[in-house]
Write a structure and sequence with these properties.
α1 crosses α12. α6 links the parallel β6 and β7. It contains twelve helices and 14 strands. The longest helix is centred in the middle third of the chain and has 16 residues. It is of the alpha/beta class and 348 residues long.
């Protein structure tokens, strides 16, 4: 098979440049086009000097027609709302699209508009986009030309809870998810809350009971459960660059031992190349997954309260964003799913 020609729209944001970094090292890919509104006509290596001598390609403005001719697949690494018309324009030309925003993740336009606070301009395309969580939707991804890449918090949350939901051993009305994330999750922004002096030495909750990813998590868990699922989700910001450490709690409907829970998770994820189940009471840490596409998960029963506790860690920019997008691309084009992604985290 000839190399896949890829384009990145929004190439100079954190998600975009992480895509560029991963795709540069992918054995089956050529980066044909990079688009940046803020840095048009500059080489991407001028914006990110770590790419010097490796990816000295000029950023252009967005031209859907040109990209559809130059690229076999386009990644749209843009904020929600911005991606709506751009992803739609590419899709309408028949170009394969992997959208990293939240714009095409929803089954219901009403839920999207409620949580995102904007009008969806292309609701007719929602049913054409596949929710791109490979561990859950691999078969659908194989036959799809349009992928809605999941959010970072939803990726970690859904994968932490999927085995329990599927087995029917938790009360779906009792789920609580707490997550701590690095500052890069906010994107390449100069907003005051994300400046060094505001973040360093400080951990804080934000968007309590109102984070838009709550609706995405609930949508996917409800589909698994076959009944509406409502969760309590609280995100926190930590003074680290990248990573998510998540703890999920739920009441069990039957007594299951630690060995039984670990077997449940091991069986559910037995063929998954990027899921690592941590046993012997070794709880995941962000250092173990930083820079990688792995999800580390541990599961523990709390016999005193009758609850189950799941701890998981991912890199928000890799498995939570760019790495998962590449994983989806690999599946779409029939490549080895781990191509360009099978490497350890950056522990130091």
């Amino acid at each position: 098979m000839s190399e896949i020609r890829v384009g990145i729209v929004g190439a100079t944001g954190y998600a975009g440049v992480e895509l560029a970094r991963i795709l540069y090292g992918h054995p089956g890919v050529t980066i044909s086009s990079v688009v940046s509104k803020n840095f048009e006509d500059k080489d991407i290596s001028e914006v990110y000097p770590n790419l010097t001598g490796l990816l000295d390609i000029r950023c252009t403005g967005f031209d859907a027609s040109a990209m559809s001719k130059e690229c076999d697949v386009v990644f749209t690494a843009l904020p929600h709302g911005v991606s709506l018309d751009i992803a739609a324009g590419l899709a309408e030309l028949g170009t394969r699209v992997i959208d990293l925003s939240g714009d095409y993740r929803y089954n219901s336009v009403e839920i999207y508009e409620k949580w995102y606070g904007i009008r969806h301009t292309h609701p007719e395309l929602l049913e054409k986009f596949t929710y791109g969580l490979p561990e859950i939707n691999r078969e659908s991804i194989k036959g799809s030309s349009f992928i809605a890449n999941p959010g970072c918090y939803p990726t970690c949350s859904i994968l932490s809870l999927a085995p329990l939901i599927s087995a029917g051993i938790i009360d779906t009305g009792s789920i609580i998810v707490d997550a701590v994330a690095g500052v890069s999750g906010a994107g390449r922004t100069s907003s005051l809350p994300f400046q060094f002096t505001e973040c360093e030495g400080n951990v804080k909750a934000y968007k309590v009971a109102s984070h838009r990813h709550t609706s995405e998590i609930e949508q996917e868990l409800s589909m698994m459960a076959g009944t509406p699922v409502t969760i309590t989700f609280t995100p926190h910001l930590a003074p680290i660059k990248r990573g998510i450490l998540l703890t999920a709690y739920a009441s069990m409907t039957e007594n299951v031992s630690r060995n039984g829970l670990e077997k449940l998770f091991s069986d559910f994820y037995k063929d998954e190349p990027f899921i690592r189940l941590r046993t012997d009471q070794r709880y995941p840490e962000t250092k173990w997954v930083a820079g990688s596409n792995f999800v580390d998960i541990s599961v523990t029963p709390d016999e005193r309260t009758g609850r189950v506790v799941v701890v998981a860690a991912i890199d928000n920019l890799v498995k939570g964003t760019a790495g998962q997008a590449v994983q989806n691309m690999n599946i779409m084009f029939g490549l080895d799913e781990t191509s360009g992604l099978k490497y350890p985290g950056q522990y130091i």
